[in-house]
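Narrative summary of target 7.
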Amino acid sequence: MDSSCPTGTRRFPVLTLFACFALALFPSTARAHVGSGANCAGCHSSARNAMSLTGFQLTTNVNTGSLKVYVVAPGGTVPIGIQVTDGRNEYGFAMVGLDATGTLDSSHKLLSQPDASWTRRSAYYSFGPKTGNQSWTFRLGVPANTPPDLYLLSLRIAGDGGGRWNEQESFLVSVQRATPPQPQVTNPARNGTTFACRVATITGFTYFLETQREPGISPWATVSSATGDGTNRTLTDPDATAPHAIYRVRVE
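Modeled conformation, tokenized:
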């Protein structure tokens, strides 16, 4: 021991080192785990190329750049594929924007049925934690009454275990009107001056009864219509006075 220094002086560097080590063991900022519901992007500021979307039908160029497009008809389900190509660490996903409004008509809203295997959060759905290079799927259901439009969503990935993740990719869900079904018409009959028939309807379509008063000469005219609701609906022409009129049912 150096007799030129007071006895307690030589211990201060040791105490200082111990204090720094204690701070490293007990950081002042809590670290959220994957799937906790916290905003992962707030901590994971350095992106790493690890996630790509698969299973899309086409791409389109919009103001925000090239976006992948998933196509689905109302009442259908579209699988949104996720490929992890650098899964050395634990990671999780977040699907954002399931309450999106239409990009073509802002009055339209995506009426989604989220994948039941993902966890519902306050403003998104999460999945994980997972590890390894694997493929995952978010099965997005679209109810029959969803307006046809383009809806902008995004998928994010964040992780733990030494790697810093903060990757997001926006994409479009194109809800397209389904192909009109062939109408199934039954019980056509004329009673006095009224013609009526029954048609099996499907929700999301409108059925029109049209007539030609003079077959092959006069244009087709709509005489009644009904909105499809999954039941058999009656279509009538209250002015069926022409002696040789013909009828048809059109669906759109």
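The chain has one helix and 16 strands.
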